[in-house]
Write the structure tokens for this entry.
Amino acid sequence: MEHDITADVLVSIAIVAAVLIGEFESAADVAVIMQIGAFLEEATVNRANVQLVKLEGLTPNVARVVSGGRDETVPIEQVKLGDTVRIAPGEIIPVDGRVLSGNSSVDTSMLTGESVPVDIAPGDEVSSGTTNMFGSIDVVVDKIGEDATAARMAKMLELASASRSKIVRTADRVAVYIVVIALSVAILTYLLTMDTVRAVTVLVVFCPCALILATPTAIMAAAANMSTRGVLIKNGGALETLAKVDTVLMDKTGTLTTGVMSCMGFESTSDVPADEVSRLVSSLESRSEHPLGKAIARYGGGTSDVEGFEYLPGLGVKGTVDGRTVVAGNVRMMADCCPEGLEAARAKGDLAESDGYTVIYAGIDGRTVGIAMVADTVRDGSAGTIQELKDLGLETIMLTGDTGTVARKVSSSLGMDDVVWECLPEDKLRTVGKVSEKHHACMIGDGINDAPSLKLADVGISMGGIGSRIARDSSDIVFMKDDISRLPGVIRLSRRTLLTIKVGIAFSLILNTLAMVMAVMGWMGPVAGALVHNIGSVIVIIAAAMLLKHDCWNDKAETKVGTPSTA
């Protein structure tokens, strides 16, 4: 309750008091200035409002339940534990369960944020909200309703949003003390002088008009500056908090990396040249819809005709290219189709996987002849951005659903201070919560799986271009151009903004204190007091307006003004 008394309370008291003693001009003056501050603050929010997309909308409202060899479409509420649900290619999986029959690949980016589909076979677990990409599968339901993955994510998002208290503005915190001081001085003045006009004048002159304007005008100016660089401020108060941040947690896929798989090359493990392996396999993969296959097709650029193309869910692809039987897939597929040469290829493949690559094995005419190495590519400028953040005194932590091998490789190449891998949404949420206990934490991500963490962090930043709408709705700041290199500049400008706000508040307090002393002594009336407030407000607005042109985007040598504490 201590923060429920804001600057508006004293403003209202001053207006009513001025009206009671007939100082209508002073009352109008104060009211207009108060409305200007309210308008500017409201404009900051309205400019960046984005339509909210509910997480529950990710899962279907119906499911096809298999019974007696036939499937029947029923409302999701009627699905029971132990039921068998059939999911066709391209459909979102509506329940949590275990695959009973069928092979496929599942897009788990909603859950893990990773762009590489996961191959599934009978016995493997699948989660609601993920997408079945290729083969039809039957799933035995083991979690429904609130226990299902998508529902748990929605609940996490709700709890994270509720757990983060509303940002209390600096001006309102100061105003709590101003209200008490102003009322006490006004009452004391009346008791000592029995002069109603003088007592009311104390309230009028100590009305914190410049104080009210200090925060919204500075935030509005900073937000306008950032908008010219593709940075959208949804929560103006987040700029104040961002200035105090000392730890930045970053999602890997889509934030530090492009989120698009790229083939890094082929290696021959036989007498077939790597160029020939690349040509044949890329021609075959040109018919594939799998992200890994598309990456290989782009790399090799093979243009030969493919006959008898066949996709084997959870295994790979095969077909005839230039009269030769060509196979591309995982180890299980090679063991069945191309056992000859597999041992040598696996040695190369294991080495490549230890370096963080996803490996696709290539087979020609019954022999395993080589491997293709595929990886997500690091964004241009990511390493430089991490170094800039360190120069600003910030600790950097990478969070990823990827394996430890891939995570450590990317983290090392970027110079991150720490890395946490194989993160599910609850793991990210737990990590952000733990860091926030001792530090001022900023979380930046792009996926639906990042949404709860973005809500829980002191400041949440999302990648607006490739990022999910739910991630954008859960964040305080959006990078519309997916340019992570903007982050150091945003932090520098937020620190400058907080400094401007503090200077504005200090100036307002000094000015009001001097005016109050003059009012107590009877040297200033209500109208003169209102004039002083107007002058003070103009000065505060001019100082804030300077943030519009403040160049923080290329200033890497900025002094550590406002460097956050770790308290």
User: Anything to note?
Assistant: The radius of gyration is 31 Å. The chain is about 45% helix and 20% strand. The longest strand covers residues 257-268. Confidence is low (pLDDT under 50) at residues 44-55, 159-168, 555-567.
